Amino acid sequence: MILDLFAGPGGWSRALTVLGVRDVGLEWDKWACKTRVAAGQLTIRTDVAMYPTWPWVGRTRGLIASPPCQAWSMAGKRLGLVDQPLVHEAVENLAAGRDTRERLLAACRDERSLLAAEPMRYLHALNTVGEPKWVAMEEVPDVLPLWKQYAAVLRRWGFSVWCGNLNAADYGVPQTRRRAILLASRVRTAQPPTPTHAQAAEPESLFGPGRARWVSMAEALGWGATDRTVPTVCAGGGPGGGPEPFPSGSRKSLVSARDRGAWTPRPDGGVLQSRREGTGWAARHDTRESRDADRPAPTFASEAHRWAWSLRSNNQANATVRSIEEPAGTLFFGHRANECTWIAEPPTAQREDTVSRAVPEPIRITAREAGLLQTFPADYPWAGNKGQTFSQIGNAVPPLLAGHLLAPHLGVALDPDDFTLAA
Predict the structure, then answer these.
(1) Which of 69, 163, 234, 340 is catalytic?
(2) pTM above 0.85?
(3) Catalytic annotation on 69?
(4) Fewer CB near the terminus (10 Å): N or C of the chain?
């Protein structure tokens, strides 16, 4: 089996499914478990810190672990950094077969900090029978010193190990999500996957194929394929959350049409008002002095080119703001159901002649959009309310990144189109 600790809504599992294998996920969160079950993933709802290790001994060829990051993440209080010496002590003790977790947990400022030591409890038990054959672990960058401690232990046990920080955008994920990664193997040299993308496109050379440009949010969401703009308000896949111009899952058709230069945001070239905002939005932003009540709401077709859309990560003054022509920043969601919003401003060359026009209000990102930016399929069956759904999305491992990390261990070739075009 492949054992997936802290399996979440299924980022690693989705990657394994695309690669042709399955895992067994241990996860505590009720809604993440419901999402996994709806996605057809094998799941045990349990507290990873309480579950016994003996059922896996002699049966596990691969171990995956993405401990909860809330104690370490910049989106939280980062008390994991304060607790880090205690976590290192727990890892050292568990690697030697000594369980001091109860004592150390009582001293932690954040009880979630010690969860980062749990993979060592499983690894120690499995190592008694020469398992697993490989290991893949992921966390926020501040956990890298802990991964280096894991690496030292695993090397003593006969593993080849690599650990370091990787940027998900370098592997085709439309998000500059940096994560601390540990890869270990008993049967091959552990090394990071070769990047497929770069901030600027690289030409082919004598040393091999060049790297493609980072995937932008516009490309990932299928917005503005020909003119690279997004309408102010749009029911054709733009920041209004309306229906896609093609059915969900038809990205392959979209890409092939794009390659022929034939695709436009809507077949009729029209720009419709947002379903979410409705006629009230149009009325509030109508620049004319009067309008008959029975006349149709404006379509803004003549204004569509005037606005440049960006994604703002939160409402704080130092929030990351990225143009749709770039990858998103790291997606994270706090106590509010949805912190990421689409914001608009006039393009620089047109600001003077649009200053008197009403700027569209910020529009919250949808779960579907956020999932796509994490490289989940458009129809992934997220369970729970908005807060529960966005929490799952923000904490998940991007399946495309996971696929790049896992494919060498499985001895299979990765086709990125299997992720980006999946329904």
Answers:
(1) 69
(2) no
(3) yes
(4) C
